[in-house]
Backbone:
DNA sequence: ACAAAAGTGTTGAGCGTACACCCATGG
DNA sequence: CCATGGGTGTACGCTCAACACTTTTGT
């Protein structure tokens, strides 16, 4: 089919920065490109928006088609539309952020040669990403970092039932911090009401005293926020 | 000219939420539509992106062309792409936020029948805006509100040289607060270094002790942030 | 009993709100 | 002189980082 228009033609694509934590490392989902341009390089999952489709559903669909990863909610990040960002023509890409609990094994998808979770530090250090996807990834990671402060975003990195220590691990991995376990526990549990909800259950099996299991509470925003700077572990000076 | 494409055709537009403060009221810039659809209704300034043009420059250009308002920096807000949001066809709009110092008189532009600064409360209460521009405006105002907390955005609502009281008025108008003059002064001047810079000059003419004049400092982010909840004027209980 | 992890108590420093009060100008 | 707005001083209360300590399990 060939489409025609009186106005300049743009293709609109969606790209997804899908983040998770795998073996104490923040990882992003990338697919190896099977076609030109940038054949063989890694790229964020994404693709063209259909004519009758809204942006967020398109992002969900592309993520599922290319990687097999299903996600319920995903948040718009920003839109990238520099002329020349895609050699095939004028495309505008609406980037989205998706957070995936813990470390699900990457599944191969339909129209991508290869799918992998790779550490973001590696992806950002090198130039292995196609198009302007390195910029998009960097923006997505920065967004996640700052949303940890004042939203319950961290709870979306852990399974449905989680311990406070697991939640703290999310902060430590993403911020590169080493938060004080005691203070963190208090802030999260008693601080802002509804951030986490206690289930009656406890985690069994691990060493030491069994931890209580929580689930995500109704409160989406944290008051007061958790701070990146303060609350580090270290000598009192 | 007629354009053709193998992919679904989108038109990409930019819309601008331009905010300023006029007689103690937060106002947005709107243009009266001279053409169908929505002829005669108010709309945010905006229009189609050119083929070889990046998004932010397109927004600046449209703002200038339609309203005569020139702006240097403007920030991307979000992208709106629901099918059916524009009856002419499938359009995706990238919304931007612009902040204009104080109250410049609205100038008439070239291809808009009428241009006006109107209070955002009025615009948001009624359904007088075309397309989904009411949603876009609401999102833009909310963004401004929250960026006052942790960035120097407030300084862009005032002239190049301003007094601390004028800066406080920006917060009071946009937040609907009544911040304590003394505490605000201290927080802004001594608190975060570089938020505002002292010029040697003073404001002459007004009643009372002449106020020192400041200009915007280099620091773009506020540490610690100004809080919306705290610092109100009111009885100690 | 011991190790290990979860969770609680405590304390001192620092910050922010709510004011009281002084300063500098115009009328 | 007074009125008006600019700006500083200060005290009380609260929060929070630091870290000691208790609790609860596995081995």
Residues:
């Amino acid at each position: 089919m060939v489409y025609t228009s009186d106005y300049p033609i743009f293709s609109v694509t969606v790209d997804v920065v899908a983040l998770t934590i795998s073996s104490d490392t923040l990882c992003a989902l990338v697919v190896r490109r099977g076609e030109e341009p940038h054949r063989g390089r890694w790229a964020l999952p994404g693709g063209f928006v259909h004519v009758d489709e809204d942006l967020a559903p398109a992002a969900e669909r592309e993520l599922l088609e290319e990687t097999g990863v299903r996600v319920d909610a995903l948040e718009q990040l920003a839109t990238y539309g520099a002329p020349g960002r895609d050699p095939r023509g004028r495309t505008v890409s609406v980037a989205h952020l998706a957070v995936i609990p813990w470390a699900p094994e990457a599944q191969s998808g339909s129209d991508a040669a290869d799918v992998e979770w790779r550490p973001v530090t590696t992806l950002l250090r090198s130039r292995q990403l196609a198009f302007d996807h390195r910029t998009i990834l960097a923006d997505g990671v920065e967004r996640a970092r700052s949303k940890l402060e004042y939203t319950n975003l961290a709870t979306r990195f852990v399974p449905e039932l989680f311990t406070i220590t697991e939640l703290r691990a999310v902060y430590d991995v993403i911020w590169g911090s080493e938060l004080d376990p005691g203070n963190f526990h208090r802030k999260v549990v008693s601080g802002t009401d509804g951030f986490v909800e206690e289930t009656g259950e406890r985690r069994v099996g691990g060493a030491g005293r069994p931890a209580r299991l929580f689930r995500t509470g109704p409160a989406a925003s944290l008051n007061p926020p958790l701070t990146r700077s303060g609350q580090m572990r270290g000598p009192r000076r």
Observations:
- The interface with chain B takes residues 1-12, 48-55, 76, 78-79, 81-83, 89-90, 92, 94 of chain A (CB under 8 Å).
- Residues 106-112 of chain A have pLDDT under 50 and may be disordered.
- DSSP finds five helices and ten strands in chain A.
